[in-house]
Amino acid sequence: MRRPGRPRPAPGGFLIALATARKSFTRAFCFGGGSSSSVGKRLFRSTAAESSAKAGTGPRGLATATPPESPFPPAGDDGELESFFLLRHGQTNFNAIGRIQGTLDSSILTEEGISQALEAGKTLASYADLDLGPTVVVSPMGRAQQTLECVRQELRKSEISKDFETVEIVPDIREIELFEWQGQLKEDIIKNNPEQYASWVADPSNFNFSGRYPARDLWKRASNAWDQIRSLQSIQDQPRTLVVAHNAINQALLWTALGCDTTYFRKLSWPNCAVLELQWRRGEARAERYRWVVPEASGFVEAADAARLLKDGEDDNRYTL
């Protein structure tokens, strides 16, 4: 479904006012607890930021090449190479207290989440050679679209970046569906269903809700989404595309692009508003490499290295249920 213009015509000031006005309702609905500010800062200064700050390392300490002086060569230098920038939405009121969202579309960005999204927009707008295409791809869910609007606000203010002309909503990049767990606090799920939760953590590939497999469905949707997103990029003839979505589906998009199965779920941490660039050679079935771009640019991790080094690594549960 294609729709020109903004997915949600609300300027950043309105978004902040909305989050502030609804704060008391949010706390009452979510049974209180948790500081959105402190939690949000901890999430944003996450694995991506910490690891890229270490010389010669990428996410979770993987060895990478030294970041180039100019993170992005002028678009078109290599006509066969295309890039996709996967952005996770900002912190929501559900994220702040550990409430499971999944495919529920009732959460909104906290003030910290809005700040994260605006900061991500500023960072993207600061790259003079980034040259994102005129079409942006976004999840149908409100928290992703709210994040996109914050990013667009910063792009409009920039003298070196352009706003998007078209918003492409792709239903398959909605978040993972967790059925009866959605809307519940993670701590309550662990307390009330310890064996079920342990099964989910130990073997997400085979975990199911009465025959419904969340991770398998996620991988299937990610594969379908890539067909649509890559086709769109080819039709638009734009070498770089921004994709605004969610934690779990972004992981699935990354790993399906690299040819990895559901056993890689949780192998990579994806904090709120982190952006990962995935490079893909046109006509090839699999992507070549990836790197973090926001909070800051890191060196590339080659596909073969990522698959080998993360295959037997410890699962990272900090940002995924």
Give descriptors for this structure:
single chain, 321 residues, alpha/beta, Rossmann fold, eight-stranded mixed β-sheet, 12 helices, 8 strands, disordered N terminus, phosphatase activity, Plastid phosphoglycerate mutase protein, PG/BPGM_mutase_AS, His_Pase_superF_clade-1
Question: How would you describe what is shown here?
Answer:
It comes from Ectocarpus siliculosus. This is Plastid phosphoglycerate mutase protein. Pfam families: His_Phos_1. GO terms for molecular function: phosphatase activity. It is a single chain. With about 325 residues, this protein is an alpha/beta fold. The chain has one domain: Rossmann fold (3-Layer(aba) Sandwich). Helices cover about 40% and strands about 10% of the residues. It has twelve helices and eight strands. Strands 1-4-3-5-2-6-7-8 form an eight-stranded mixed β-sheet. Strand 3, helix 7 and strand 4 (about 165-170) form a beta-alpha-beta unit. It is globular. It starts with a strand and ends in a 10-residue tail after the last helix.
